[in-house]
Amino acid sequence: MEKDRNGKSYIISIDQSTQGTKALLFDETAALLDRADMAHQQKISKEGYISHNPEEIWENTRSVLRTLFTRNQIKEGELKGIGISNQRETTVAWDRRTGRSVCDAVVWQCARAEKICEEIKKEDKEYIWESTGIPLSPYFPAAKMAWILRHEKEAAKLAESGDLCLGTIDSYLLFRLSNGTAWKTDYSNASRTQLFHLDTLLWDKRICEIFQIPMECLPKVCDSNSLFCMTDLGGLCKNMVPVYAVLGDSHGALYGQGCHAGGQVKATYGTGSSLMMNTGEKRIRSKHGLVTSLAWKISGEACYVLEGNINYTGAVITWLKDELQLITSAKETEQLAREANPEDETYLLPAFSGLGAPYWNSEAKAMLYGMRRGTGKKEIVKAGLECIAYQITDVLEAMEQDSEIAISRLCVDGGPTRNGYLMQFQSDMAQTVVAVAAAEEMSGLGAAYLAGITMGVFTKEAAFARLTYQEYRAKMEKEKRKKLYGGWKEVLNLPQMVSHIGQEYGKDGIL
User: Across the 511 residues of the chain, what is the mean pLDDT of every consecutive 10-residue run?
Assistant: First the structure.
């Protein structure tokens, strides 16, 4: 691709995450030049339902793009392409005729569709697991879509008339960016809906019927580096710009981390956490509570992953700040943890909306366990950080068991990875090298890199040569590590927990 006549060629990635929307600006050398951020409201009802306003997200998307254009004086023709990374599983319903949402989006953390999952027959659960690689759970969009159709009258009415669109955030943004001409998603996002067959790589008719979701309400599935649409960015550009990459946020981070070969593993520490092991062309059926998804399908070649999703990791820090008011910012947690009594045996089980991988227990309740009279703010903050590392380690162990591959290096990204106490503790618990990416925005970076490489704005070699890491290596004594991690396992095996954990999927995670 030829550069702009002034020598400037830009790629922008839109990173739409759980907490907010970012726009990232990259030049023709794949260097990150600027970013703009805007948070959106976290809506939590009295029932505990977690929602986002799609219209607010769309307006924030336009706003952060406008900020980048204004601040960097981007001229017509200089912007070559767009990539999108998005919070996965969060489910949107909108009117095909207008593009406007018909209700709030159901956020991935929300378990409001639990009863719908309970209604599914055992033989259907087995078929769903086998076909989609995902255990039946209200975490995934299939049940969320079914809930919307049952409880939102306008959505049900539009479905009857054929005017309802159901999809994940990427589909909604593509629809709005294209002024309603692009009704699409990519393979990474489709594979997370629990409606997509991992072998046929098609929407599964039987599963759609089980959840009573009309297939005509679902988007067209495209390669992750397709030309998804042309956009004027909501009226921001005079010329039309191509959207040339779409990836779910965790998949974007996997790509951005350079984990393109089988056996490579990354963990994204966000509101929740996603751990992914690239398994290449091989689909591994988990027997230890993980899910199988598509990493992506790029230029016609599908790539699979083993994945474990954790509901509360970075959100634990938010809870410490907003609900308990023990801290005023996330930065305080590292020093407080270092100052805490190292002999304190307090554990936090952050099952605020159940437990994700590898347990998949939506009925689990959060608890602080093992407190002493001397347990105070510092010790609770320490327990909050450590529970993140324990959960990550649980998933890594399951990955090693499923893949029969020893994990020697874990590439990590996300805000909590700037916490030195947490990263060292993570290395100690997982007994592996933890490599912290210098780049903070790996999801958006991955989408930008895929778009830029596909369009020829920069080369794959030049882009990934920019990645640098800070490494943490395990140094804790084995006996101390065994005691600490063993204590965590004891919490998971308390009577009130063991009555739920694994009861549906068995001790090894098999249906």
Answer: 62 94 95 95 92 97 95 92 96 96 94 93 92 90 97 95 96 96 97 96 97 97 97 88 95 94 91 91 91 95 93 92 94 96 95 85 88 95 96 96 93 92 97 92 94 94 92 96 95 66 44 34
The residue count of the chain comes to 511
The count of C-alpha atoms lying within 13 angstroms of the C-alpha of 48, restricted to the half-sphere facing its C-beta, is 9
DSSP H helices, 152-199, are 153-161, 169-177, 187-190
Rg of the chain (C-alpha set): 22
Answering whether pTM is above 0.85, one says: yes
H helix and E strand count, the chain: 17, 24
* Phi-psi domain of 84 (left: phi exceeds 0; alpha: psi -120 through 50; beta: other): beta
The answer to whether the beta carbons of residues 60 and 46 sit under 8 Å apart is no
Q: Contact at 8 Å (CB) between 429 and 487?
A: no
Query: Residue 17 region, left (φ>0) first, then alpha (ψ -120 to 50), else beta?
Result: beta
pLDDT score, position 1: 47
409-413 and 265-269 beta bridge pairing: parallel
3-state secondary structure at position 406: coil
SS3 39: strand
DSSP-derived letter for residue 102 is S
Amino acid making up residue 485: Y
* 3-state percent helix, strand, coil for the chain, nearest multiple of 5: 35, 25, 40
Coil/strand/helix, residue 324: coil
Nearest to 491 by CA among 333, 416, 383: 383
| Distance, CA of 396 to CA of 55 (rounded, Å) | 37
Helix (H) or strand (E) holding 387: helix 377-403
Tokens 């990875």 correspond to 417
Sign of the dihedral through C-alpha 372, 378, 383, 384: positive
Query: What dihedral angle (degrees, nearest 10) is formed by the CA atoms of 16, 362, 314, 50?
Result: 50
pLDDT computed for residue 6 by the predictor? 54
Question: H or E stretch including 21?
Answer: strand 20-26
